[in-house]
């Protein structure tokens, strides 16, 4: 993981921490995690938060730092509370704190790269495929581990597992092709 926190995220999260009344732990995923934590050179304007502990404070934090909030207007980035996402069943056991000790009340925990990828499976936009391809190279992914987590921890919770089976197969095929091409 990258150790630095670039602007505008540094100012946004520093200001958020200063405004929090109580400690808050965010479970983060999405483009912020792929770019800021794992180094993909692309920008993102939102920090996707899957869960927050304590969860009863989530509404207040969203009002403070969500889209069109004072912090969003000041920094140009915002917090996005993700209400619809299917993530691997045991993702919490693999969370890793990022930028630990930087703030007094705020703690950010990133999903591990396999869990980030699998959380993007149902949506499957081009940006998601690009993120997965980047993670597969940067980590690099053990494709059998990706399959195992999919089958054991995600597939049972999907509304259309047959469709996602095909998506995962496509993603794995793309990663394998990229790896073959890079060896030439």
Summary keywords:
8 helices, single chain, about 45% helix, five-stranded mixed β-sheet, alpha/beta
Provide a brief overview of the structure.
With 184 residues, the protein is an alpha/beta fold. 47% of the residues lie in helices and 14% in strands.
Q: What does this molecule look like?
A:
- The mean pLDDT is 94.
- Helix 5 (113-119) packs antiparallel against helix 6 and helix 6 crosses helix 8.
- The chain starts with 8 loop residues before the first helix and ends with a helix.
- It has two domains: 9-112, no CATH class; 117-183, no CATH class.
- The protein has helices spanning 9-19, 31-37, 58-65, 70-75, 113-119, 126-138, 143-154, 161-183, and strands at 24-29, 46-53, 78-81, 96-98, 106-110.
- It is globular.
- A five-stranded mixed β-sheet has the order 3-2-1-5-4.
- The chain is an alpha/beta fold and 184 residues long.
Secondary-structure topology with pairs:
Layout: H1 9-19, E1 24-29, H2 31-37, E2 46-53, H3 58-65, H4 70-75, E3 78-81, E4 96-98, E5 106-110, H5 113-119, H6 126-138, H7 143-154, H8 161-183
Parallel strand pairs: 1-5, 2-3
Antiparallel strand pairs: 1-2, 4-5
Backbone structural class = alpha/beta
- Main β-sheet, spatial strand arrangement: 3-2-1-5-4
Residue share in β-strands: 5-15%
Number of helices: 8
Poorly predicted ranges (pLDDT <50, ≥5 residues)? Answer: none
Mean pLDDT: 94
The backbone outline, from C-alpha atoms, is globular
As for the number of domains, it is 2
Report Rg: 17 Å
- What's the order of the H and E elements? HEHEHHEEEHHHH
Distance between the termini: 28 Å
- Quick one: how many beta strands? 5
Helical content class: 40-55%
Strand count, sense and barrel status of the largest sheet are: 5 strands, mixed
């Amino acid at each position: 993981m990258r150790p630095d926190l670039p602007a505008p995220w540094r100012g946004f999260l520093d200001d958020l921490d200063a405004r929090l009344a109580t400690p808050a732990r965010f479970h983060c995923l999405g483009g912020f995690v792929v770019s800021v934590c794992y180094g993909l050179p692309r920008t993102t304007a939102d920090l996707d938060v899957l869960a927050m502990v304590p969860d009863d404070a989530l509404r207040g934090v969203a009002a403070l730092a969500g889209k069109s909030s004072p912090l969003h207007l000041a920094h140009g980035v915002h917090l996005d509370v993700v209400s619809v996402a299917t993530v691997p069943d045991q993702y919490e056991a693999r969370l890793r704190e990022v930028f630990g000790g930087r703030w007094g009340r705020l703690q950010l925990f990133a999903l591990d790269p396999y869990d980030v990828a699998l959380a993007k499976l149902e949506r499957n936009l081009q940006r998601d495929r690009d993120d997965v391809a980047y993670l597969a190279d940067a980590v690099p992914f053990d494709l059998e581990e990706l399959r195992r987590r999919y089958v054991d921890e995600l597939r049972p919770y999907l509304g259309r597992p047959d469709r996602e089976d095909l998506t995962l197969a496509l993603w794995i095929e793309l990663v394998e092709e990229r790896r073959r091409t890079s060896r030439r």
